[in-house]
């Protein structure tokens, strides 16, 4: 089925992500209260992070549909990076709290026993089923629209399946064999994954806010298009910077000085359209200079 309205499809994926994340937070809060399991607490922190990321993704999709205004001539994409920095800080704090609680349980002489493991396992199974249903819909939308935000959100939820499986394993080991310490070990592993994810999110946001250049593969791809474009005798000052999911590209191309204004415009416009087709997440400005023939 062709994507009749890509924006509506992208928003539907974003809304589904927010709703599922909210349901998972409520479900795991209940499971944590019933079981007292740190592995469930780690999975809960991960779902709380998912909820914030999903809200950020919704905002990003809305912002992408808004044109720049007089005060924000390059758009509002940097709000994504500011939100991502806040998210990474929250995740790191959550990972620290879980680590402290897990270590405390491991070194205590009388570890706290888990409760209602069967209820906890049921809650985590439901969480996995909800997450899988969301991933199926996000996969469909990403295939139809090619939206980068939806693709990134989908990858994030795919990664969330592991902490849920870890929580099920720890609850089962506690119920079947009385291995209470497994819960703390799983919680430590989940906290480590949370911290690594937070650092990656924070670094990406920091790089964007500091105007770091885009992916070298993208830069080389644009350079190749400019180098091979008919009528372009050379190029220079290819500069890129990132803001949220948008990559801003500035490029100077060298043209024959005897071309008419219309001919020069057509060459630059054709190259710009080709770059946008190859890299839809870009915003391209091309300057035209006279080549030294």
Description of the molecule:
Helix content is 70%, strand content 10%. It has helices at 6-35, 38-64, 78-107, 117-145, 148-159, 161-177, 181-209, 216-228, 261-278, and strands at residues 234-243, 246-255, 282-290. It is elongated and about 85 Å long. The chain is built from nine helices and three strands. It folds into two domains: 6-209, Alpha-lytic protease prodomain-like; 216-290, Cation efflux protein, cytoplasmic domain (Alpha-Beta Plaits, 2-Layer Sandwich), CATH 3.30.70. Helix 9 (261-278) links the parallel strand 2 (246-255) and strand 3 (282-290). It has a three-stranded mixed β-sheet. The protein has 293 residues and is mainly α.
What is shown here, in short?
Helices cover 70% and strands 10% of the residues.
- Contiguous low-pLDDT stretches (5 residues minimum) are none
CATH topology of the largest domain: Alpha-lytic protease prodomain-like
CATH A-level architecture of the largest domain: Up-down Bundle
- For the record, the count of structural domains works out to 2
Q: Based on CA inertia axes, which overall geometry fits?
A: elongated
- N- to C-terminal distance: 51 Å
Adjacency order of strands in the biggest sheet? 1-2-3
Provide the residue-averaged pLDDT: 80
Helix % is 55-70%
Number of extended strands = 3
Please summarize the sheet with the most strands: 3 strands, mixed
Structural class: mainly alpha
CATH C-level of the largest domain: Mainly Alpha
In DSSP terms, counting alpha (H) and pi (I) runs of 4 or more, how many helices?
9
List the helices and strands in order: HHHHHHHHEEHE
Rg over CA atoms, rounded to whole Å, is 24 Å
Q: What is the CATH superfamily of the largest domain?
A: Cation efflux protein transmembrane domain
């Amino acid at each position: 089925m062709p994507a009749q309205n890509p924006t509506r499809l992208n928003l539907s994926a974003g809304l589904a992500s927010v709703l599922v994340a909210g349901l998972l937070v409520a479900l795991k809060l209940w499971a944590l209260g019933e079981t007292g399991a740190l592995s469930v607490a780690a999975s809960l922190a991960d779902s709380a992070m998912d909820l914030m990321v999903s809200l950020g993704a919704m905002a990003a999709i809305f912002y992408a549909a808004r044109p720049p205004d007089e005060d924000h001539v390059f758009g509002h994409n940097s709000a994504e990076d500011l939100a991502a920095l806040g998210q990474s800080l929250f995740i790191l704090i959550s990972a620290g709290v879980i680590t402290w609680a897990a270590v405390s349980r491991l070194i205590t002489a009388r570890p706290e026993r888990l409760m209602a493991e069967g209820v906890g396992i049921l809650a985590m199974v439901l969480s996995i089923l909800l997450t899988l249903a969301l991933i199926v819909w996000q996969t469909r939308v990403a295939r139809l629209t090619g939206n980068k935000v939806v693709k990134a959100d989908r990858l994030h939820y795919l990664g969330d399946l592991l902490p849920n499986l870890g929580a099920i394993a720890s609850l089962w080991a506690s119920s079947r064999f009385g291995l209470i310490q497994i819960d703390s070990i799983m919680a430590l592993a989940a906290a480590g994954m949370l911290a690594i994810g937070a650092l990656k999110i924070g670094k990406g946001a920091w790089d964007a806010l500091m105007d770091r250049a885009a992916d070298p593969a993208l830069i080389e791809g644009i350079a190749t298009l400019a180098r091979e474009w008919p009528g372009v005798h050379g190029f220079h000052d290819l500069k890129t910077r990132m803001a949220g999911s948008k990559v801003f590209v500035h490029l100077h191309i060298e043209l024959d000085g005897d071309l008419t204004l219309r001919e020069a415009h057509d060459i630059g416009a054709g190259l710009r359209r080709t770059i946008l087709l190859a890299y839809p997440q870009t915003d391209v400005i091309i300057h035209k200079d006279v080549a030294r023939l």
